[in-house]
Amino acid sequence: MILTTETLESNKRFERSCYLNLLPLFFIQVAFNPDEASNAVKECIEGVIGGVDYSQNKVNQWTATIVEHSLTQLVKQGKPFKYIVNCAVMQKSGAGLHTANSCYWDTTTDGSCTVRWENRTMYCVVSVFAVAITL
Amino acid sequence: MMPCNTHKTCFSKKRLGHGSQKRAEGQKSRVTTKADSDPKQQWSRTKKTTGFSQTPPNQQAVKTEMETPVPWTSSLTVYPGQSEWQEYQTAPHRRFPREQVHSVMKSIVEARLGEAQYTSSCSAVARELSDSIKEAAKSLSYERYKLISYVAIGQLRDSEVTCSSRGVWCPAADTFTEYTFKNDHLFALCVLFAVYQE
Question: Per CATH, the architecture of A31-132 is what?
Answer without folding.
Answer: 2-Layer Sandwich (3.30)
